[in-house]
Amino acid sequence: MAAVVLRHCRRGLLLITSNGAVGTVRSNGFGGVRQKSTLQYISRPDQPKLAYSRVKGKSPGVVFLPGYGSNMNGQKAEALEEFCKSLGHAYLRFDYSGHGASEGVFAEGTIGTWKKDVLFMLDELAEGPQILVGSSMGGWLMLLAAIARPEKTKALVGISTAADCFITAFKTLPIEVRKECEDKGVWTVPTKNTEEGMYTVTMDFLREAENHCILQSPIPITCPVRLIHGLKDEYVPWHISMQVAERVLSPDVDIILRRHGQHRMAEKDDIKLIVYTIDDLIDKLTTLV
Description:
The chain has 289 residues and is an alpha/beta fold. The protein contains eight helices and 13 strands.
């Protein structure tokens, strides 16, 4: 029998099973059998179709932005969908072009390309105020989207936020290694997330990414910001979240460091923390209204 964790929330009793599924148990009987969301596609003129899953509901809605090379079917994304369904709040998750079930070629994508994907989905499918939840590179895109759509972005939750990550990491390489990469035109990055055991990042990708770096100046974001990061993150150092916190203009910023947290933040306790954080933000925004 799956282990179950119960926690009292302002809206009811929060339930999280050992596989990461999340829901609420309410005294008024809300819940029962919940309809499973279905995969859909949205078309764009001369652009790849984007795959998405959407749950309609109350505001504020929640939008999940996955990481580099990841997709909308991860444990965090699916757990958040169950949580939002149980509360009756709107939820949107989707795949960037070249990722998951979306059309497009992954190797042709850039930070700018994926930023446009995010803004398109916010404009076309996310109704009303939103809480953006960004994982890894999705945290970088979350910040870029909040700058571009301040009227729609009411709160941010960054998970292992990888702001400026490719540029920062490349610049920390020894100069001879950088020179070799520039000569070859590619930078090979070891990873456990692909069958090949590596990502191949082109110099063109890096040059384009530099146009979207945000850590060298104040970040014009004024909504509540929550940054969750693991101290054992092997890909994105936790001090990146500290830098984001120092640069955003918002007076309401919290950093949560997980002593044993790793990059994916997909353990049961990690998901619980993410859900609690979003739950508190929904309360905060609802109270403000």
